[in-house]
Amino acid sequence: MKTLALIQPTMRFIQQPLEYNAERDNASPTRVRSRRVRIWMLACLASMMMSSVVQAQTPGVRTGAIDARDGRRVSIEQRVEQAFRIEPVVQRFKGRRGEVIPFSFTVTSTGKTMQIDVSPIQLRQEESGIILHDEHSPPMEGVKFTTPTRFTLNAGETVELKGTVTIPLAKTNYLSFGLLVRDEGMVDEPTEDDAIGGQTRAAIRYVTQYVLRVDVETGLTNLSSIEQMEIEDAQVVSHEGMPYIRAYVKNPSNFALECRVRAELSHKESANASKSRSSDPIALFMPSRANLDDDEKYLVRMMPNARLRLEAPLETSLIDGRYDLNLMVSNGRRTMLERTFPQTLLVNSFRALDTRIANLGPGVTLEPAQIELGRVEGTQRMVTLEVKNNSDDDQLIHLVPRDHLGDPMSRLMLSSTKFELTAGRSKTIRALLRGVSKETSQWGTLDIIRRNLKTPNDVESATSLPLELVHKQRPQLTVAAGPLQWANLTDGNAFVIEVANEGDGYAPIQGELLLGRDDGSRPHRLLDGFGRWLAPGQKRELQFHLPAEIDAGRYQIRLTVRSRDNLSVEEQVVVLDLTEEMLRGSQQTSNDAAAVSNADVDSNSLR
């Protein structure tokens, strides 16, 4: 491995320009389409047409922008007012094919008089599941308005928007009709009075629009539309160091549909495929529903001709080898569509996995993988451990808690220390802190000895998990970091930094490196550490591996390494020219140290 030490950081923080996200609900209160406005030089700013009303003036949120006339910094205060409100934004009904269903929405002015236009529109869906309007496609037939589609909404007035939808004869279990309600709005030209007392001011005028939906569940069991769905691809990918199932499905029909999608992962080389599968089928969800916490999270609603990304975390241990990832599409009662995708998985691709799930051997796991008990704030006196046996054989498990000197930890009580675990079963162990100790804290390991009951005299595996008991207070954190370096590793190029725990207790380590260019593109976010505990006296090298698509050029690097309670271990910002020779790992690498800039960092180049 060749490494190259980087020159010391030119600054420790990047001052960001103001980025204001103007968001308007295009489908529901939780699904929005945003348009971003960046304000760099604030001498004068013309009004712009968007959605809602914004006034921006001093004083308020500060930016890095400079007034070109006298070099003064300009502050911005933001205030958003929508021109009108509509309730609800989505109405859901149940009906049969051919049935006519009335709908009604309430439009309320927020204090201005305006012209309102209403029209049926076609809906489109982004890959994340967010539903937007499609002005370039003809709307779904069957929408009729019984109230005017163009009217004046006076200040403080409330108007009912009414109409009907006729359910078509399509054989689908779900339909969605879109309605666009838009304020025509007028843009005021800026005047000399807009800058009072020599102050620099900015104003943005928005046009409010709502995309409303009328959703209908038809109750059909003849689901020919679901059978037309296409399962395009499915993979197990690394997401923040953890295995994540990511799949792509497409609805090629001209009608919306509802379904549920589940996945199962099975190891090809297992003697018993049913036991090697993930313990339960994993329900996938659209990213737009990731924050829901009920069963609605896993309901997949697909608009006509939509292509969606579905995903879910894979919370199970893995071993290197070949797998089958099986995807199943159902209507909630039975599987309508199924497809299998072969996978080759390497555990090293999921570097955060062992911080949550300890692998005791093929198919045998213990959670959590890092164990802390205590009597101080932020700790628990009892922790539940779960041992799972998804292997093909019955296992004998022996648990032994020891301190860092190898002596038994007498203050830790386990509900079971030696037990047999049948293949395909799991067992829960309670770890309890008992009595009073003279020690302030203790650190050590929970040693786990595993034997296969087919050969009980032979130790199949011995694993040690980090264990800490906090009796009176946590030991003070003392973590040191070395220089940030460029390294050509056997598995690719990376930025590396060594951290060392100089304290008297475990130190969790979390590292983040942002690698960005000055072209306005989103920076690459590279992670390592993942909260894995570092033992006293132990050193570890954090490796931030570069994506394969990184090209040569000038980059700004922002490194943050933190520990427990958000303690800052290291923060650096450097500017670096990545050359072709560095990316190829040639002998010229050592000559590129001068490519690290000592000039002032451009505050706009990483955002």
TrEMBL record:
It comes from the Bacteria. Residues 586-607 are annotated as: Disordered. Residues 590-607 have a biased composition (Low complexity). This is Signal peptide protein.
